[in-house]
Design goal:
The complex is a heterodimer of chains A (257) and B (440). With 257 residues, chain A is an alpha/beta fold. Chain A has a single domain, classed as P-loop containing nucleotide triphosphate hydrolases (Rossmann fold). Chain A contains seven helices and ten strands. Chain A has helices at 51-58, 98-108, 124-134, 139-152, 168-180, 198-215, 250-253; strands at 4-17, 20-35, 40-44, 66-71, 77-88, 109-113, 186-190, 218-222, 240-243, 255-256. Helix content of chain B is 52%, strand content 20%. Chain B has 15 helices and eleven strands. Classes of the chains: A alpha/beta (257), B alpha+beta (440). Chain A binds chain B through residues 56, 59, 61-62, 70, 98-99, 102-107, 109, 111, 113, 115, 117, 119, 121-122, 126, 130-131, 133-136, 178, and chain B through 2, 5, 9, 335-336, 338-349, 433-436, 438.
Chain lengths: 257, 440
């Protein structure tokens, strides 16, 4: 059994004008995928092919089976539909709800986003310690663990700074430290190097690789930057690159490189 | 605790400051209004207690044997402070303000011959009224509530004294208490509004048409003080005198139709009335001061309800303001809430964070608002114009009055309200879609 099992996942976004469907866009169309434990996998594909949607579904931020209506631009409404199932180590993340899902995410999944999403009012140490405090670990112990994580990402000297005083690369390192403080089994990174300059991109990617190798951490990385995934000799630096095709071709053309 | 940390970071200090200031002012306002109303309520109670006995046992005519029997029976009851027969009836009266003159009378062959040094020329004959030493200046005919009190101990007199406009000398009060002295006007009290311009120690001639025959001039009374009933008006003007004076005026020696009872705690009068009913027999009517003025108390209850509705409306509007502020806080913090959800934050954590923040604001508001409320009430009562206004409403000696029970209700109600106020924004926060929030 694979660590992550994704089965027949669909997702369609519809824009509704009054009672009329104004536009319809299918981004995931019967996608199925397995990810092995400890694998470093990159998901690549054109804009709008559903990379981030898939990542959010795996991480339980976006539910798989649903039909919801959201208001967009005043009177226009978009209906979002999906189906299928996703399990992580046997846990049905796609159907779990409430506290059960929240607790699973807290203990097993770490997120890193393109915009680091650090909380501006908290210092670096508190930002990193936050997931542990959500787990009801005492502030003292959480700070000790956060200190350790900051050492791993080489930011221990910046523990008492506010995020606004850090560079883009430092902020992303803090976000990675925060994602890993609860020692999750899965790290989901949505374009973590997207807003960084080329020199920093490499260092962040190397950090993710190091964590993957040292901690047997399963890492799924969404990126547009294919250069990042290969070394100078053109060898792949990741275990697998998952090419997500346009939805209409997905069943046939989902490509593994 | 994560929730305290979240609450502090979600609700920015500026918002928290204004919400706290609003709460402090709201609580202070409630305390000031409650204190003023408590003063008014107490003043009304004192007025009513000044006019009426705590318990009145009424019978058409109470015999001396019954007076003796009841006195013995009631004397054994712990809660009763005083009990005495009295007269309490409504009768038509002709009350005339008179000017008295020094008159000298001497027995002559044809009966007593009198001489008024001020009014009559030397040697001139005096009219019968002039011979009694007075001139009528103005007259009022009205139904009055005639009360004759036995002042056995000081309780009834003390009660009436609360209403007196003028603190009359101890001698005058003693005369009211002891009854009529030979050849002297009898002491009386009546409502300030009954005879406008009447002053303490003015003399009045009182005649009861139902009792006094034609030609009977009535009895002469001296006003001890007028009674200030504030905004409470009796159905009939009160005319209060000693039991003996009332008997003389009525021409019914030994008469009493009420047995007045004063108890230690006036608010226990209704319970005591039920206890006493078997002791006093079935042919009497027992009424409490609360029964007697049920209308006034109903009016006060209506007033209290109106004040409560107004205050509650203000509180609801304030609560809606807090809800909208917290909703704004939630909207502003959508990305933060979304990232917290991505870290596994539970719905419960969000609810608790906002509730604790609201309770923190409520706690500071209650503490500072109570202190401010006491201070503001105290300062307000120092303002001479305000005190005079209250005095006109029948609240002669206002003070800061806050019922501890009422304060406890205020604390509990505020905490419950702030709990309710936190629920709507907390629910909104829980409904934030993490994906949308992260892109906000």
């Amino acid at each position: 059994m694979a660590f992550i099992e994704i089965r027949d996942v669909h997702r369609t976004y519809r824009t509704v004008d009054g009672s009329r469907i104004a536009s319809e866009e299918t981004v995931l169309n019967g996608l199925s995928l397995d990810v092995a434990r400890g694998e470093l996998m990159a998901i690549v594909g054109p804009n709008g092919c559903g990379k981030s949607t898939l990542l959010n579904m795996i991480g339980g931020l976006d539910t798989v089976e649903k039909r919801v209506t959201v208001r967009v631009n005043g009177s226009d409404e978009a209906t979002v539909e999906g189906s299928g199932s996703i399990t992580i180590d046997g846990f049905p993340i796609s159907s779990a709800k409430g506290d059960e899902r929240a607790d699973f995410i807290n203990r097993n999944v770490g997120f890193v986003f393109q915009s680091h999403h650090l909380i501006a009012e908290l210092d670096v140490l508190d930002n990193v310690a936050l997931p542990m405090m959500i787990r009801r670990v005492s502030r003292r112990k959480a700070h000790a663990a956060a200190d350790e994580m900051l050492r791993r990402v080489e930011l221990e000297k910046h523990a008492k700074k506010r995020p606004a005083l850090l560079s883009g690369g430092q902020k992303q390192r803090v976000a990675i430290a925060r994602a890993l403080i609860n020692r999750p089994r899965l790290l989901l990174a949505d374009e973590p190097t997207g807003s960084l300059d080329p020199a920093l991109k490499g260092s962040i990617f190397e950090l993710l690789r190091k964590l993957n190798r040292e901690d047997q951490l399963t890492v799924i990385l969404v990126t547009h930057d294919l250069d990042l995934l290969n070394d100078a000799e053109g060898r792949s630096k990741v275990d697998r690159v998952f090419q997500l095709a346009e939805a209409k071709k997905q069943k046939l053309a989902t490509t593994e490189v | 605790m994560i929730e305290i940390m979240l609450g502090r970071n979600l609700v920015k200090p500026n918002y928290a400051r204004f919400l706290t200031i609003g709460t402090i002012l709201g609580i202070a306002a409630v305390i000031v209004v409650q204190s003023l109303f408590a003063n008014y309520y107490r003043a009304v109670e004192q007025h009513l207690l000044g006019l009426h006995p705590h318990l009145a046992v009424t019978k058409e005519s109470i015999s001396p044997a019954e007076v003796e029997k009841w006195s013995l029976a009631l004397g054994r009851h712990d809660g009763i402070v005083a009990a005495a027969p009295a007269i309490d009836l409504v009768t038509n009266a002709v009350v005339s303000e008179v000017e008295t003159h020094p008159v000298v009378c001497a027995d002559g062959a044809g009966g007593p011959a009198c001489f008024d040094f001020m009014k009559a020329a030397a040697g001139a004959a005096l009219t019968p009224r002039q011979a009694m030493g007075y001139e009528i200046e103005r007259t009022r005919v009205a139904n009055v509530r005639l009360r004759g009190l036995v002042v056995d101990g000081s309780v009834p007199l003390h009660s009436v004294r609360r209403l007196m406009d003028v603190r009359t000398s101890a001698d005058e009060l003693r005369r009211l208490a002891l009854g009529p002295a030979e050849g002297m006007p009898m002491a009386c009290l009546f409502d300030r509004t009954f005879f406008h311009g009447a002053q303490a120690l003015d003399d009045f001639l009182v005649r009861l048409p139902a009792t006094h025959r034609d030609g009977d001039e009535g009895r002469l009374f001296r006003l001890v003080s007028t009674l200030n009933l504030g905004m409470q008006r009796s159905e009939h003007p009160n005319f209060i005198t000693s039991l003996e004076s009332a008997r003389q005026l009525l021409g019914r020696p030994g008469f009493a139709n009420v047995f007045e009872i004063y108890v230690r705690d006036p608010h226990e009068a209704p319970g005591l009335a039920q206890d006493l009913a078997p002791t006093l027999g079935g042919d009497v009517e027992i009424t409490t001061w609360i029964d007697r003025d049920a209308g006034s108390f109903r009016l006060l209850d209506v007033l209290r309800t109106v004040i409560f509705i107004i205050l509650f409306s203000v509180v609801v509007i304030a609560a809606l303001g807090i809800v909208s502020t917290l909703s704004l806080v939630v909207m502003e913090n959508r990305p933060t809430i979304a990232i917290l959800r991505a870290m596994g934050l539970r719905d419960r954590n969000l609810y608790v964070a906002l509730i604790l923040k609201c309770w923190q604001i409520a706690a500071v508001g209650l503490l500072c608002g109570t202190v401010l409320g006491f201070a503001a009430s105290s300062l307000l009562l120092q303002v001479p114009g305000f005190r005079q206004g209250l005095a006109k409403m029948g609240v002669p000696a206002p003070e800061v009055l806050v019922d501890p029970g009422g304060l406890a209700v205020l604390v509990v109600a505020t905490l419950l309200l702030y709990l309710a106020v936190a629920l709507v924004p907390a629910r909104d926060a829980c409904r934030i879609d993490p994906v949308e929030g992260l892109h906000a």
